[in-house]
Amino acid sequence: MIPKLAILGASGHGKVIADIAELNGYSVVFYDDAFPKIDSIAHWPVIGNTRDLLKSLNEYSLCIAIGDNLIRRKKQSELQEAGGRFPVLVHPSATISRHANLGHGTVVMAGAVINAFAEVDCGVIINTSAVIEHDCKINEFSHISPNATLAGGVTVGKCVWIGAGSVVKQLVNVDDNVVVGAGSVVINNIPKGTTAVGVPAQIKIAK
C-alpha cells in the first residue's frame, strides 16, 4: 500500500515538500487554512482545512508546510497532541551522516548536508543546499535557509530563522527567536529575540 501524506499549507514551500514526499514514495494531499477557496495546488488536491484534517488523522502521516516558525510550532503541536504522526522527510540528494539525529516533522531539502553528531530537533526546516557541520545543535521549529552554512559546534535556539546564504562561525550560539538576515556572517553570540544583519553581523532590532 502506498503511504499517504497530508501537508498543511498550500504554498510554494508546500510544493517543495510534496515533491520530496513523492520521491520518498508518498501520495500527497494538501490541507490549508489561509486560502479556503482553492481546491488544488499544481497537480495536488486541497481537500480541507485544519478542522477537516483533525477528523482524518488516522489516514495520513503529516507535515506542516508553513515557513513562519511560530505558526508551524502551533500547528504541529496541535495535530501531534491529537495523535498526528510526523515523519522526517529528506530529499534523496541530501547527505545525512549516520551519526546525525533528526527530530519528527523535520524536512531536509535537496543538496543539504548534515554532518556527524549534528542534532536537529523537531519541526526544523533545513532548506536547499544548507550545510550543518559536525556537532551543531538546532532546536525545535527553526529554519536554516538555502545555502546557509553553520560551522562546527554551532547552537541554534528555538524558532530561529537563519537567512539565505548566511554563515555562522564555529561554536557560536544563536539564541531563541533570532532572525539572521540573508548573507550575514555571524562571528559572535546573538542574544534572544533580536535581528542580526551584515558582515560581520550586528544586532539591529529587538523584537
Would you mind describing this structure in some detail?
The chain is α/β, with parallel strands linked by helices. The protein folds into two domains: 4-86, Rossmann fold; 88-196, Hexapeptide repeat proteins (UDP N-Acetylglucosamine Acyltransferase, domain 1). 14% of the residues lie in helices and 29% in strands. The chain has three helices and 24 strands. It has helices at residues 12-23, 50-54, 69-81, and strands spanning 4-8, 27-31, 40-41, 44-45, 61-64, 89-90, 95-96, 101-102, 107-108, 113-114, 119-120, 125-126, 131-132, 137-138, 143-144, 149-150, 155-156, 161-162, 167-168, 173-174, 179-180, 185-186, 194-197, 202-206. The strands form five sheets. The protein has an eight-stranded mixed sheet, with helices on one face. The chain is globular and about 45 Å long. The protein starts with a strand and ends with a strand. The mean pLDDT is 96.
